[in-house]
From TrEMBL:
This is AcrR family transcriptional regulator. Residues 37-56 bind DNA. Keywords: DNA-binding. PROSITE patterns: HTH_TETR_2. The lineage of its organism: Bacteria, Bacillati, Actinomycetota, Actinomycetes, Propionibacteriales. GO terms for molecular function: DNA binding. The keyword DNA-binding applies. It comes from Actinopolymorpha rutila. InterPro entries: Homeodomain-like_sf, HTH_TetR. It comes from the Bacteria.
Length: 197
């Protein structure tokens, strides 16, 4: 029986689980993945590691849940920026989305992708879940009249390209080159949309 199923037997147990997850998520957002452990998470949550194991399967499960929570926040903020940009084009929406994705406060999410690359046997879900969280939203930003296949292809191109820019930026890449590359992506999206006219 997993920790999650034990804690969901009651509304009180589920509320406690959400409270603990929120505290651990805040610690992760502030301190990143370096030295993340069940004991560190317990200190951040003001509890013991045994209590965390009652509510979560293990440290990896807790880490995944906290990362997903942080990604949800970034997705919501990014979509709000894209929709509030005033731009009707996909290119304008991606231009508005990029500063949210590149914000230094989201560094821990890019570290999570690094973990997925470093130890895929253990952390593959961190990478896989990232795509599952972002792709539907990127698809939704595409022009409505595009076919489902075209939306999916363009969304995957945008996601892979932006992820590459983030990795480069986080690993000490050349910001001028990243900016030029991003501008090239935006121009490619503009051409893709202009092909409809």
């Amino acid at each position: 029986m997993t920790g999650y199923s034990r804690s969901t037997r009651s509304p009180r147990g589920e509320a406690r689980r959400r409270e603990l997850l929120e505290l651990v998520t805040e610690d992760l957002a502030a301190n990143g993945l370096v030295d993340f452990s069940l004991r560190r998470a317990a200190r951040a949550a003001g509890t013991t590691h045994k209590v965390l194991l009652y509510h979560f399967d293990n440290a990896d499960d807790l880490l995944l849940q906290a990362v997903l929570r942080l990604r949800d926040r970034r997705v919501v903020a990014g979509l709000a920026a894209a929709r509030e940009s005033g731009g009707d084009s996909l290119a304008a929406r991606i231009r508005a989305l990029w500063p949210v994705l590149a914000d230094e406060r989201a560094r821990v999410l890019d570290q999570a992708i690094g973990l997925a690359m470093y130890d895929p046997a253990r952390y593959a879900a961190l990478g896989r879940e990232a795509s599952q969280q972002y792709l539907p939203h990127l698809v939704a930003l595409c022009p409505e009249h595009w076919s489902a296949r075209r939306k999916q292809e363009v969304a995957e191109l945008v996601l892979a390209t932006l992820r590459g820019f983030l990795i480069d930026a986080r690993t000490g890449g050349d910001s001028a080159s990243d900016s030029a590359g991003f501008d090239a992506l935006v121009r490619a999206l503009e051409r893709e949309e202009a092909a409809d006219e």
